[in-house]
Design a protein that fits this description.
EC 3.1.1.-, signal, ten-stranded mixed β-sheet, 395 residues, cell wall, globular
């Protein structure tokens, strides 16, 4: 078994506190964002459907979902020039932060393989079409399903509630299984993820790098994983309360980690991240009178003072990545959009009208950075200057 890094030792301890916290995560708000999963877009295209593979060796290792079922992934085999190249996409989907919300979660695809789709569309960075995914279309592309509730971290259980918190074991079992299926021969590898999966790609980045020979080209990509320890509209810190004991150990918030990652890392984030606005900056718990209700669902309905607050959040994000951006090997794409997860949606990853900064789409920016065609550290001007955004509006 591969050794736990120091981050995982701390995370595992912190997670013991996390799951006994007293804040209820807002599942309703999360479902609004999740409705945009799996490449939902207005484009007329025929996505590749890829079947679910359960990791049969995981059970003996105790690497199981919250409810004890086997974890799984979707894999489309690479070919040609991509036969020995691997892209691992870690699925997102928020977190459960106490026993009650984790028990709820184990009756969903986020906590049990029983409820996972047997096939999912591969779009965006997972697409098999060169015109939709120019740099990675013929790689081995894997979507690792998320069913532990804590960004593939932690290693404990709650016997009374029949909950298994085995994220770290799931991660290792999946990597070992894929290594046995050819990933050990990878000449190129990219660990990516969106949302909670984007956070996981940061947390596991160096560990992933160490699985391969030094001669292999290995990098990491975090999409919408830069969750900030930001002040909410009431003056409190909703997300800090959610993380509870984790943030007390100064390890879980990405802003405290990214400058210490040794492996080249690309941060892709919307400056006005939809999830963070709805569930961290202006959640109902911080807005009991509903002053932010319309704004949080549709940015066009924000008042001048609300927009100033959101501009302050953007500035805080840019300050958080200053140290990170100084590394020549790291990459950045921060667009001034109201969005969340832009790599898996075809319309935001690479299409005729994809979001751009300086006439460069997200897919081209990531490819230029990965293959060292160009240094990529692109930060958009503040809203409303960017007319290429595919902003999310909720009802």
């Amino acid at each position: 078994m591969m050794k736990l890094s120091w981050v995982w030792i701390v995370i595992a301890i912190a997670f013991l506190q996390l799951v006994t916290g007293f804040l209820d995560f807002n599942e309703t708000e999360l479902s609004l964002i999740e409705a945009y999963d799996y490449g939902v877009s207005k484009l007329n295209y025929n996505p590749l459907m890829v079947g679910l593979t359960l990791i049969t060796s995981a059970g003996a290792k105790g690497a199981v979902c919250l409810d004890g079922t086997l974890p799984g992934y979707h894999w489309h085999r690479g070919y040609g020039s991509g036969a020995n190249s691997w892209l691992i996409q870690l699925e997102g989907g928020g977190w459960c932060n106490n026993v009650r919300t984790c028990v709820y979660r184990k009756k969903t695809r986020r906590g049990s393989s029983t409820y996972m789709e047997k096939q999912i569309p591969f779009t965006g960075i997972l697409s098999d079409k060169a015109e939709q995914n120019p740099d990675f279309f013929n790689w081995n592309r894997v979507k690792l399903r998320y069913c532990d509730g804590a960004s593939f971290t932690g290693d404990t259980e709650n016997k009374a509630a029949k909950l298994q918190f085995r994220g770290q074991r799931i991660w290792l079992a999946a990597m070992e299984d894929l290594m046995s299926k050819g990933m050990r021969n990878a000449k190129q590898a990219l660990l990516s993820g969106c949302s909670a999966g984007g956070l996981a790609s940061i947390l596991h980045c160096d560990e992933f790098r160490n699985m391969f020979p030094r001669t292999s080209k290995v990098k990491c990509l975090s999409d919408a994983g830069l969750f900030l320890d930001a002040v909410d509209v009431s003056g409190g810190r909703t997300l800090r309360s959610l993380y509870n004991g984790v943030v007390g150990l100064q390890c879980f918030f990405p802003q405290n980690l990214i400058s210490n990652i040794r492996t080249p890392l690309f941060i892709l984030n919307a400056a006005y991240d939809s999830w963070q606005i709805q569930s961290s900056i202006a959640p109902p718990s911080a807005d009991p009178h509903g002053y932010w209700h319309e704004c949080r669902l549709n940015h066009a309905k924000c008042s001048a003072s609300q927009m100033r607050f959101l501009q302050g959040f953007r500035i805080e994000m840019l300050n958080a990545i200053k140290g990170f951006s100084q590394s020549r090997e790291n990459g950045l794409f921060i667009n001034s959009c109201f969005a969340h997860c832009q790599t898996e949606r075809q319309d935001t990853w690479f299409a005729a009208n994809s979001p751009e900064i300086r006439n460069k789409a997200i897919a081209i920016s990531v490819g230029d950075w990965y293959f060292d065609r160009a240094g990529v550290k692109i930060i958009d001007c503040p809203y409303p200057c960017d007319k290429s955004c595919h902003n999310l509006v909720f009802k």
